[in-house]
Design brief:
One of its GO terms (molecular function) is endopeptidase activity. This is Carboxyl-terminal processing protease. It holds the Pfam family Peptidase_S41. This protein is α+β, with helices and mostly antiparallel strands. It is built from eleven helices and 21 strands. Strands 5, 6, 7, 8, 9 and 10 form a six-stranded antiparallel sheet that branches. Strands 12-13-14-17-18-21 form a six-stranded mixed sheet, with helices on both faces. Strands 3, 15, 16, 19 and 20 form a five-stranded antiparallel sheet that branches.
Length: 383
């Protein structure tokens, strides 16, 4: 009979990661607990895990930390999905994630995702941050941090290593295309994300740049749009280049301002159930162009697909990143948490863009020619 402490620890892992059972304690007799057959059978599936833990604790050459073993086992369950977007996070890792979605942290200012090659891939550097100024580009692979090898399996650890006290330095080793790896020494700064900025371009064309979708993005977008409308803009360009995505609800609120009554996106879960995000009849009602590139991912692609499929504007630039999966982020009682891919998403016309991205209506390969092309397109529409 196992101890109460160990039973509680391993029982919590089962409850957390299988989400299949509800523990109904029927009777407590001293140090023994009677549970339902269903609970016992579910627990028994993980008996190997518990047995190996015991072997490690009794035979490993030095003392082991039980919490580290539990975190490693829990992470391993998520890694068994072979899905780079699903992961268990320790309390510190989960706090870092929440810190980013709130819009500020201390680090170098790059957005990364696991690459299909198993390497940490830069989706985009955030404008006006140390990483951006150091020359990090979308598509770069981060292979070392401070001389230590890192891979997509250790992405959270690598991100934590890249963060640090303002003013301190970190060495990032970059692999770019087929070239030899090279080092960049970057001084960390307080990264305060201003995700939306705008201006009026020539011929009264409005321009809004969205760098990511955090908790304040939709509100800031509406403020900027209202200010531009007060200046009687005749057309609008929304720049989503190198925007790695973010919170779906923020994307939904922005799409609702642009496309009129229709479907923004729909998702499909493992049971085939579809859920549709809809917009109301309100829309800007002026010529619209979205700038995109290979650094435009996730929520940026949802917004792009919504505008394109509802025929409210055109996409200009290069093919987007190609992330068509939806994650749910959930905190746990001990401060840890997890991300789990729960559905695929499809553009309003039913296109599944995962792994292939969205090809723009007007392809413009050269970065310096993309905005001028968007201005030219809007001018033609407002003649």
């Amino acid at each position: 009979m196992i101890s109460k402490k160990k039973a509680a620890i391993w029982g919590s892992i089962l409850v957390l990661l299988t989400s299949l059972i509800t523990v109904n304690v029927q009777l407590v007799l001293g140090d023994k607990v009677l549970v339902s057959r269903k609970v016992f059978e579910e627990y028994n599936k993980f008996s190997k895990l518990y047995s190996l833990k015991k072997v490690i604790e009794e035979n490993y050459y030095t003392k082991v930390n039980e919490e580290d073993l539990i975190n490693g086992a829990t992470k391993g369950l998520f890694e068994g999905l072979n899905d780079p977007y699903s992961q268990y996070m320790t309390k510190k890792e989960f706090e870092d994630l929440m810190e980013y979605t709130h819009g500020s942290y201390s680090g170098i200012g790059v957005i990364v995702m696991p690459g299909e090659d198993g390497l940490i891939t830069v989706v985009s550097p955030i404008e006006d941050t140390p990483g951006f100024r150091a020359g990090i580009k979308a598509g770069d692979k981060i292979v070392k941090v401070n001389g230590k090898d890192v891979t997509a399996k250790e992405m959270d650890k690598a991100i934590s290593m890249m963060k640090g006290k303002k003013g301190t330095k970190v060495i990032i080793t970059i692999l770019r295309e087929s070239k030899e790896p090279f080092d960049l020494t970057i001084k960390r700064e307080e990264i305060r994300l201003k995700t939306v900025k705008s201006q009026v371009l020539e011929d009264n064309i409005g321009y809004i740049r969205i760098t990511t979708f955090d908790e304040k993005t939709a509100g800031d977008f509406k403020k900027n749009l209202k200010e531009l409308q007060s200046k009687n803009i005749k057309g609008l360009i929304i720049d989503l280049r190198d925007n790695p995505g973010g919170l779906l609800d923020q994307c939904q609120k922005i799409a609702d301002e642009l496309i009129g009554e229709g479907t923004i996106v729909y998702t499909k879960d493992n049971k085939g159930k579809k859920e549709y995000l809809k917009s109301d009849a309100k829309k800007v009602g002026i010529p619209l162009a979205l700038l995109v590139n290979k650094g435009s991912a996730s929520a940026s692609e949802i917004l792009s697909g919504a505008v394109r499929d509802n025929k409210e504007g055109v996409l200009i630039g290069t093919t987007t990143f190609g992330k068509g999966l939806v994650q749910r982020v959930k905190p746990l009682k001990d401060g840890s948490g997890f991300k789990l891919t729960i559905a695929q998403y499809f553009t309003p016309n039913g296109e599944y863009i995962h792994g292939k991205g969205i090809k723009p209506d007007i392809v413009v390969e050269k970065v310096e020619e993309q905005l001028p092309k968007a201005i030219e397109y809007i001018k033609e529409q407002i003649k």
